[in-house]
């Protein structure tokens, strides 16, 4: 039996695919959501997982751990009683619990799982997630990107037309927004962004803050009475109140503390005003992914709400206003990812109906080199970061740019390779340096730098002096020491086709040839139309973005066929 698991920052879920539909599995408490919280009970020397651990967050903060997904793939150590554990080990405890709950519920053993991960997870974070599965006794051959899982849950694979989805995921403490593109059976995460310190918890804090502000002003509570445990009590009341915001028009909080009862009523308007800064932090990343994916709100076909906090009316309304579309939320937002993961699990266990989905990925950062501003000599030039692969480019990818040495009598070029987004190289992360000797006697000293980035975070940097076709190569591993030289070599052999500039690829050349001939035969408006399309196609080839090229090519080809049919109607 293969299951699908949403291993969330706040909550985790498990489900499976059964006779054509998703079934989510309840835990021992009969609930679908298991809090991703671990606690150590010193008295009984046992580890508690889920809701029982969450309750201890108040009484026993010291030995309770939450939010560890943030540290997945890092070497951070959490102290849990006498144990020192890393995030992947803590995650494995959650997975073990889910597995056990499912086995009890189904009465069969579970060996394999598809687990969802954020689209921006790096190779190391993905490996750590797989490892967590292994530690829990689960085979994890396949991870699924969370936005892709959401898309699948909403039947993205059943679409025949090219479709753009915006997946809006506001969880407990993280905000992820992604754009998915579905095109001829391929689902791609085109862009992803967000704010990893924004989520439902911030809205709860606002309510708790409003409560104290009100009672401090009316002098019913004094500053010095606000202890950590009083705060926690108010926070819990605020959380309950928040969950009801969608169903009540007169929200109210009642907190009983040390034989006093504190009441607080407010209007939705009051709350909205206070939450305004949070809403602003939602708007920015949405704009950014749209720009990164080169899309406008009107070219988004569907908007999907994911994450418990997207249930809040102010958030839902904001999304609708921003994207001018009624967002989909008929699958409960905090269960969408688990639905998608369960469908993918069904796909894995060979349900043919969902077979041809390919999930591709994006590079989370820009990758580039240090370069001098043009037309200046070394003495007065400014060094800046020149991206070769921009962030959110679909991987695997291969892109190149041309450069030339700054000084006439320079013998060596030193290529410094960086990852990051800043204009200033020193604010980015240095990945490696490639020193290349300039061949003797060149007329044209310009050279090409090509970056080839594969799905596992391996970056190959190649410089070629174009005149003599002299190439030097450097390989940078995202996760050093995990691949042998031979494996790396094989990997890049497979990527060879990518390295050809798309303009040099036979099919594209052929199409351009056809267009060139037709251009000579046409006149007037049709000639202008064709000319414009040739420009569009050439520009697309220059982006070296294979998905974009495929789309443009399809349109270009059909225009060519139409125009051709008009002058030669047989
Ligand atoms: P994660 O993806 O971080 O694991 P979830 O998607 O489960 O998290 O979302 C958890 C957050 O959703 C919590 O902050 C919780 O308060 C919030 N939430 C859940 N249901 C509602 C609701 N009906 N209204 C408002 N917030 C909600
Ligand atoms: Mg989530």
Give structural notes:
The chain has 14 helices and 27 strands. By secondary structure, the protein is α+β, with helices and mostly antiparallel strands. Strands 1, 2, 3, 4, 10 and 11 form a 6-stranded mixed β-sheet that branches. A hairpin with a 4-residue loop joins strand 5 and strand 6. Helix 4 packs across helix 9 and helix 5 runs antiparallel to helix 7. It is globular. The model is unreliable at 352-360 (pLDDT under 50). Adenosine-5'-diphosphate binds next to helix 5 and helix 6.
| Unreliable residue stretches | 352-360
Which structural class fits the helix and strand makeup?
Answer: alpha+beta
> Distance between the terminal alpha carbons, to the nearest Å?
57 Å
The value of Rg in angstroms is 28 Å
Number of helices: 14
Beta-strand content bin: 25-35%
Helicity level: 25-40%
Question: What is the arithmetic mean of pLDDT?
Answer: 87
Shape: globular
The biggest sheet, with number of strands, parallel, antiparallel or mixed sense and barrel status, is: 6 strands, mixed
> Bound compounds, please?
adenosine-5'-diphosphate, magnesium ion
Instruction: Give a count of the beta strands, DSSP E runs of length 2 or more.
Output: 27
Topology:
Layout: E1 2-7, E2 11-18, E3 21-24, E4 34-35, E5 38-41, E6 46-49, H1 51-59, E7 64-65, E8 78-80, E9 83-85, H2 87-106, E10 112-117, H3 123-135, E11 139-145, H4 146-153, E12 163-170, E13 175-183, E14 186-195, H5 200-217, H6 228-243, E15 252-257, E16 260-265, H7 268-292, E17 302-306, H8 313-323, H9 336-348, E18 358-362, E19 367-372, E20 383-389, E21 394-395, E22 397-403, E23 412-419, E24 429-437, E25 447-453, E26 459-465, E27 470-476, H10 485-494, H11 496-499, H12 506-521, H13 524-543, H14 546-567
Parallel strand pairs: 1-10, 10-11, 12-17, 14-18
Antiparallel strand pairs: 1-2, 2-3, 2-4, 5-6, 5-7, 8-9, 12-13, 13-14, 15-16, 18-21, 19-20, 19-23, 22-25, 23-24, 25-26, 26-27
Helix pairs in contact: 2-3, 4-9, 5-6, 5-7, 12-13, 12-14, 13-14
